[in-house]
């Protein structure tokens, strides 16, 4: 465990907890967290994770803007359901991105290109749905974060595995709270 991993983990917990609570401060705190994790994963040669966290940095800014310039009361964005087309198209795109990224990472010294690329692609989809406040993002995060726990335990990244276990629990809480929020506005 490094100081970098410890700080990034603490910021990650705070950012996800704020996301569950629908507090827009989750985005700038998350931005710092993903930049620190990009650095951490670069040192670990998990290049899909570096790429993921770089893209997460962009989505943090996008999510912050979407949440503060929404269409709901007071400018906030309401929680809504993803359409069947969004779900099907998103899952298909994530599969294709997984394959393309794994093949591309095969040309580097990436440690685990296939699981790394697959988790990266589906994390991107969950992050997009989160920025758009689709409650289904939490279902996808539950699956992805659970798989990340196993992936990081396998590599002996104990603190990061623990962080993703906590992310899984927060995702369960987020699913419950966002579905309640959606029901309250329906």
Automatic annotation (TrEMBL):
Cellular component annotations (GO), alphabetically ordered: plasma membrane
Subcellular location: Cell membrane
Recorded superkingdom: Bacteria
Keywords from the named record: Cell membrane, Membrane, Transmembrane, Transmembrane helix, Transport
Gene Ontology molecular functions: nicotinamide riboside transmembrane transporter activity
Bilayer-crossing regions: 86-107, 113-131, 138-155, 161-178
Membrane-protein topology: Multi-pass membrane protein
Function: Required for nicotinamide riboside transport across the inner membrane.
PANTHER family per the UniProt record, alphabetical: NICOTINAMIDE RIBOSIDE TRANSPORTER PNUC
Similarity comment: Belongs to the nicotinamide ribonucleoside (NR) uptake permease (TC 4.B.1) family.
Name listed for the protein in its UniProt record: Nicotinamide riboside transporter PnuC
Organism: Pseudomonas matsuisoli
